[in-house]
Amino acid sequence: MRIGISVYPLFNKKGADKKIDGIGNYTSCLIKNLQTQSNVEVVQFYINSLQDTCKIFTGSQNMCIQPCLYFQDILPINFFKNLEKQVDLFHSTDYRIPKLKKTPLIATIYDAIPLKEEEFANQRLLSLKNYLLKKHVKRADHIISISNAMLEDIVNHWKVDPKKISIIHCGIDAIWFSNISMEQKKQVLDKYNIKKKFLLTVGTLQPRKNLDRVLLAYQSLPKDILSEYQLVIVGKRGWECSELIKKILFLEKQGLIKWLEFIPFNDLRALYQSSTSLVFPSLSEGFGLPIIEGFASKTPVITSNIPSILEVAGNAAYFVNPTSVEEIQYAISSLINNTGLVKNLIEKGSDRAKLFTMEEMGNKTMLVYKQFI
Fold it and tell me: What is the predicted pLDDT for the residue at 137?
């Protein structure tokens, strides 16, 4: 079985590793698991821009560059025939969905945020992108949704027949469950000059991640807590974040905040395992992968009481109304002051994380593939 996978989320156009986000993590874990399956060959495609159509991507084995979704409809039919000759099935993990006639096409859809909640989507060319996305999603023979909570949105906003949808939760790499030594954690903390106890928040700087309220909640903590705890933010610059960055830089100068735009994978694991809690009160999510990463790292998690997150977190997190600064602040204070609550959440979170493994995700995805091959 030769499975084509789009790996645009993992590499930039020069072949170098990309600062990957949730879609990148999903794609990486899926490929790793498929490569362990018997009688499966993964053929990786980098789908990017029209000018790169004929180049060979030398950054990774079995990789060739193909054009992005914005240009696919004007390409010669021979291009798609050549792609189809290389694979038995193609899985689009990043909305770059090729026009294939004879090859089964699977697409993973993460959420309906650009269509349903436009205020949380990048406004640049939004109408055009939404039009093209809806059009190209219809090319897929089958859709994978990463949560049950997203099923209704995919049906209503993407206009997909529910019979064509499978629910497969995201999974994380087994390495998340392994403990990092105290010495290694100290080295990472020294590397980033983190001298105090700290709260951690992870995610791209963009409106739906709700960092403005996290900052307000943190600043409203009692002075004795503020003097003892920093807020560490790990997240690359997103869109409409210029004012947020000004606030972050101001608080960083005061020694209250540490902003790390991007850090290596093992450093991130060390920060999870060293933090007092993960603060993740997102306003909108298709899944919320940092929650599972926090659970696996034995870190108590504060997160939102919205449907998709409730589905993922079960009873293993401290839930808040994400629009309430007071609730976020109270949750942070509670986890700092209540060791019994922290122990309970860590135990529940550790058990919950075991339900979301890379192997589980990969095996269920293989069952979808087998329906079409």
Answer: 82
